[in-house]
Specification:
By secondary structure, this protein is mainly alpha-helical. A hairpin with a 5-residue loop joins strand 2 and strand 3. A 3-stranded antiparallel beta sheet has the order 1-3-2. It starts with 8 loop residues before the first helix and ends in a 9-residue tail after the last helix.
């Protein structure tokens, strides 16, 4: 998955193990361009709590902290996402053929992806 394309199958599965990382990748696959951490936090909060999710809730705060300190850096280290300098905005990086793996995982999770080419 990294730009050097040396990511092994084990690292790929490790990256997709946590639902936050999977849903971030699913979201970025369906929304082109730069996305804010706030947008990703709201999306994940909605996925976990449904439409009754409250912005600024404890859940949203925990998700934002986890994204910022653990999950987004891990995806960035693998080359799957890039950060703007302020590290508050993210966009999909080079996924080098792993789009099909991400899309299949999205289908398994029940996340609807539009038909895309990789």
């Amino acid at each position: 998955m990294a730009s050097s394309n040396k990511t092994g199958l084990g690292e790929t599965f490790d990256l997709l193990t946590h639902p936050y990382r999977r849903y971030v990748l699913y979201y970025l696959r369906t929304h082109s361009g730069v996305v804010s951490v706030d947008t990703l936090t709201a999306m994940l909060t909605n996925e976990l709590e449904g439409s009754s999710a409250t912005p600024g809730s404890d859940t949203a705060e925990r998700i934002e902290i986890a994204l910022h300190h653990m999950h987004l850096p891990k995806l960035a280290d693998a080359g799957l996402i890039t950060f703007a300098q302020d590290r508050r905005s993210i966009e999909l990086g080079e996924i080098h053929g792993y789009g099909q793996v991400i899309d299949q995982a999205a289908r398994i999770d029940g996340y609807a992806l539009p038909a895309t080419g990789d």
